[in-house]
Design brief:
Elements (H helix, E strand, L loop, with lengths): L1 E13 L2 E14 L7 E10 L2 E2 L2 H4 L2 E5 L3 E6 L2 E13 L2 E11 L5 E9 L2 E7 L16 E8 L2
Antiparallel strand pairs: 1-2, 3-4, 3-5, 3-11, 5-6, 6-7, 7-8, 8-9, 9-10, 10-11
């Protein structure tokens, strides 16, 4: 969220004419430049149409930093790397570059939606950007719904 600041400028061009001008300038600083930063807990997931067991989801968490991410399972880091955000047509996109863990060396494109404390990400595990939020047999799409950890 961008803010503005008010700057007071005193004009003394003519000795007998003094005036103060107030101008609002937008600041290029935001409170949270990346609204998806934080710790996310999955509550629903499916891979190629198969639903993930709730017991497995309870052991997972996704931590998103300013430019990095890490996936934790059962207290261990199983995947970590960097990411960039973008926009393709009507979708917000995320491109993950895995540096360590199960996906090391892979680039994984994804689309995402953020609504309040809910984040939905559809990962294109085969390396192509998903064209919608779905995970059907044969697609290699991993669709996950997360809740922000309080």
């Amino acid at each position: 969220m961008a803010h503005a600041t008010r700057i007071r400028v005193r004009s003394e061009i003519y000795p007998n004419f003094r005036r103060i001008v107030e101008i609002d300038f937008p600041l290029m600083v935001s409170i949270s430049s990346n609204p998806i930063e934080g710790t996310w807990l999955p509550f629903k997931a499916e891979l190629s149409g198969d639903h993930a067991p709730h017991m497995a989801l309870a052991k997972m968490r996704l931590v998103i930093g300013a430019t990095s991410y890490a996936v934790h399972f059962g207290g261990e880091t199983t995947d970590e790397g960097s990411y960039t955000l973008g926009l393709v047509e009507e979708f917000r996109t995320m491109t993950l570059v895995s540096l360590r863990g199960t996906n090391a060396g892979r680039t994984i494109p994804a689309i995402f939606q953020l609504s309040g404390d809910r984040l939905r990400i559809c990962y294109g595990l085969e390396g192509t950007l998903p064209t919608g939020f779905g995970s059907t047999a044969g697609t290699c799409h991993y669709l996950v719904s997360y809740r922000r950890k309080a």
